[in-house]
Amino acid sequence: MQTSKITRIAVVILVLLFLVLSVISCSTHTHTHTYTPAPSGKKIPPGQAKKMNGDKSAKAYAPGQQKKR
Predict the structure, then answer these.
(1) Helices then strands (H, E): number in the chain?
(2) Residue 25, pLDDT score
(3) Quick check: 18 and 29 in contact, CB under 8 A?
């Protein structure tokens, strides 16, 4: 009777240890890219300008898509 109680406690401790280790090991990684500016006199392609500003569409950066003021 005593050994089954000790075994049950050991199993509970091992399960809790496994759960704690599983939660602790979860992590997220964010990758950041550093972009170097274009040399003076060169224009940045619309897709690169979009990436640098974090936008979803490059339409605003394309020369043919900009409205004249």
Answers:
(1) 2, 0
(2) 79
(3) no
